Amino acid sequence: MRLDVITIFPEYLDPLRHALLGKAIEQGKLAVGVHDLRQWATDRHKSVDDTPFGGGPGMVMKPEVWGPALDDVATGSTSTPDLESSLPHLNKPRRDDVAGVTPQGYGGGEEGIDKPLLIVPTPAGKPFTQADAQAWSAEQHIVFACGRYEGIDQRVVEDAEKRYRVREVSIGDYVLIGGEVATLVIAEAVVRLVPGVLGNQRSHEEDSFSDGLLEGPSYTKPRQWRGLEVPEVLTSGNHAKVDRWRREQSLLRTWQHRPELLDDVELSKADRAFLDSLRD
Ligand code: 6GU
């Protein structure tokens, strides 16, 4: 997979070189290019924004700068070197390393799969979900356009449809200063699902959201710590009981923190009985 990010704050994207993503770069499973938008500014002051038509506060990012930037990045016609991994990596296999997963697209009508995917992070976008992360993990080339200020001239997004499949997405109901941190969030959620990057297939089949429920609590040794015991069922050796207990912990957490998610989950008779017992 190749990721390109266009931003006026390239150093903000440095975390992409570290940890899991750094390892993916090191292993050749990921290439990342971070591009300074000002490269495409044409005036003496390298300005990238201007006052909004119709008046109002803030500034809007200029189409004459973003247009050529997106043209060049779509075709790889840039001079920026790719990011290097921060890790002098110990090529030590992890205890849970197994073959990766098969990425799952959304299925059905693929619009111009040849075009790269352009992600425009914006609080006015469609909510980003685990299903998007799963689908995008099968992409060859994803470009992120990070806007600052009051956003990017909307004609840039419209025009980009010629060369990209464009998605305007939000990572939550709050406002960030710009799209950079949202890009880090989305990139991490997507890249960890690229086959061979995370290592352990089961660990994301059991992720919160993958089955529509939140994950329950986890425990490790020691059995007793600061007077607190690990739940007895987990040390019982009874796998059926452990599975049932974990399912109920997931149901409990979801009921406590995200009750609306329960509307879209397939519930067994036993699940319903457990949830009914909570409501009493
Ligand atoms: Cl994706 N971008 C910005 N700038 N703010 C946000 C956001 C994205 N998602 C929530 N707030």
From TrEMBL:
GO terms for biological process: tRNA N1-guanine methylation. The lineage of its organism: Bacteria, Bacillati, Actinomycetota, Actinomycetes, Mycobacteriales. Homodimer. The keyword DNA damage does not apply. It catalyses: guanosine(37) in tRNA + S-adenosyl-L-methionine = N(1)-methylguanosine(37) in tRNA + S-adenosyl-L-homocysteine + H(+). GO terms for molecular function: tRNA (guanine(37)-N1)-methyltransferase activity. Pfam families: tRNA_m1G_MT. Specifically methylates guanosine-37 in various tRNAs. PANTHER family: TRNA (GUANINE-N(1)-)-METHYLTRANSFERASE. Its EC number is 2.1.1.228. Residues 1-76, 115-263 form the tRNA methyltransferase TRMD/TRM10-type domain. The gene is trmD. It comes from the Bacteria. Keywords: Cytoplasm, Methyltransferase, S-adenosyl-L-methionine, Transferase, tRNA processing. This is tRNA (guanine-N(1)-)-methyltransferase. It is found in: Cytoplasm. One of its GO terms (cellular component) is cytosol. Belongs to the RNA methyltransferase TrmD family. S-adenosyl-L-methionine binds at residues 147, 171-176. InterPro entries: Alpha/beta_knot_MTases, tRNA_m1G_MeTrfase_C_sf, tRNA_m1G_MeTrfase_TrmD, tRNA_m1G_MTases_N, tRNA_MeTrfase_TRMD/TRM10.
